[in-house]
Design goal:
single chain, eight-stranded mixed beta sheet, four-stranded antiparallel beta sheet, binds iron/sulfur cluster
């Protein structure tokens, strides 16, 4: 697969903390900016017009950035008899203040959706500005090889002294760093990593190897008994991307539109096929499917798990299910 943007020389520059506002404003003059903001006690990604609304130090947001690349619901095209009208997204979006795990999630989504015209149109107009994260005890990006920044990031701001070291991995990012706000340093940075001690370390290679021979492990049944099938975990996951496609017709059946919307493999009807057969009728098989897809079949296809260890599924599961415990029981410890 070709990369989203050509990777060129890595530049290490510096920007003072007080100049970040002007950098934000430079970006906001060309892009709709999406950044982490406070909403009650939580942090969410939302459109931001004023820099002071941006939260620079946070652990994780509730919702992932997938919603800006794969919206919850989108019209793919409308039709009227034989006429089809397709409208590709044109908006320039800047994702400002993303952590390494979320940027790596975009890199993994690229592997799946690179040839999807709607995703690609958004991706081609996207600017990614990353920032140093503040890991929590629920983070496990190291376990899933998502702690090293993927070179899809245009500009990364690494906290350093009273400001940030700024590194660019793409041509678009390099142009942004040409702003007078940045000064050149002699520091050469070849790799950006999340630096922290993981609360629970897992061996994701062992998980991949062991998953299929643990098909009848009691952990699936036991956890399924606690699971509510609510889909919270798949909604907040930056790498759960199941979707459904529906043709909505108007009064005249030959007019309407084709709509794509989020779905979840946790839902009963997800694996129901023509004739009424359902491949995953019980919650146990749906729960197990989430793991076999994320940690085995996705790895077989793309070489990495469909998980970046952001910990959202752990934080937002109302039944208190911790993915790391399930993975440990199927041989990941
Ligand atoms: S499975 Fe959980 S930890 Fe992994 S990326 Fe999804 S939400 Fe984050
Ligand atoms: S969030 Fe928890 S309870 Fe809800 S479907 Fe996921 S694992 Fe089950």
């Amino acid at each position: 697969m070709s990369r989203v943007k050509k990777v060129i020389t890595v530049l290490a520059k510096e920007i003072k903390k007080e100049d970040l506002k002007r950098f934000f404003e430079e970006i906001a003059s060309d892009y709709t900016v999406i950044a982490p903001v406070r909403k009650g006690e939580d942090i969410v990604y939302a459109e931001v017009e004023i820099f002071d609304d941006v939260v620079l130090e946070y652990t994780t947001t509730i919702t992932p950035v997938k919603k800006f690349l794969l919206p919850y619901k989108e019209t793919m095209f409308s039709f009227e008899k034989e006429k089809i009208r397709e409208k590709l997204p044109e908006e320039n979006i800047a994702l400002f203040g993303l952590h390494i795990c979320d940027i790596n999630a975009i890199a993994r989504l690229d592997r799946v959706f690179w040839n999807d015209p709607y995703y690609r149109a958004r991706r081609d107009n996207l600017l990614i500005v990353g920032i140093t994260c503040k890991p929590s005890e629920k983070c496990f990006c190291k376990s899933v090889n998502a702690h090293i920044l993927a070179p899809v990031c245009d500009v990364f701001l690494r906290a350093h002294g009273n400001g940030y070291q700024a590194v660019s991995f793409t041509e678009t990012g390099r142009k942004k760093l040409n702003s007078f706000l940045f000064t050149q340093t002699q520091t050469e940075i070849r790799e950006i990593k999340a630096e922290y001690e993981e609360g629970k370390h897992l061996d994701v290679h062992k998980v991949s190897e062991n998953l299929l021979r643990n098909y009848e492990n009691p952990v699936w049944e036991e956890t399924a008994k606690k699971c509510l099938g609510c889909t919270n975990c798949t909604v907040v996951c930056p790498l759960c991307y199941c979707y459904d496609v529906v043709d909505n017709t108007h009064v005249k059946p030959e007019e309407g539109e084709r709509v794509r919307c989020w779905d979840s493999c946790f839902l009963l009807n997800f694996a129901r096929v023509a004739g009424g057969h359902n491949f995953r009728k019980d919650l146990k098989s749906r729960y197990r499917n989430v793991y076999t897809h994320k940690f085995r079949t996705f790895v077989d296809e793309f070489g990495v798990p469909a998980c970046v260890g952001c910990g959202r599924c752990v934080t937002y599961c109302p039944a208190g299910i911790d993915m790391r415990e399930t993975l440990t029981r199927v041989g990941g410890a």
